[in-house]
Amino acid sequence: MTVLKYRYWQDEGMWLGYLEEYPDYMTQGETLEDLQENLRDLYKDMTSGAIPSVRRVGELAVA
Fold first, then answer.
1. How far apart are CA 13 and CA 19, in angstroms?
2. Rounded CA gap, 39 and 42, in Å?
3. Taxonomically, which superkingdom (predicted)?
4. Is the Cβ–Cβ distance between 34 and 40 less than 8 Å?
5. DSSP β-bridge partners for residue 6
6. Closest listed residue to residue 15, CA positions, set 23, 7, 25, 5
7. What is the pTM of this model?
8. 21-61 pLDDT, tens per residue?
């Protein structure tokens, strides 16, 4: 099982959020559970190649 971090908030009755690894791609849901399911679907699309030219976040160590 893969565990992903995500950011989320509620705005005007909708739950909005994005996966930390893919901050340029947001989704929403009417409930927190809907949002989580939409984030799972988004992750599948991102990792399957269904969305071209996916931008990611990485970490870089600098001395």
1. 20
2. 5
3. Bacteria
4. no
5. 19
6. 7
7. 0.87
8. 999 999 999 999 999 999 999 999 999 989 889 999 989 99
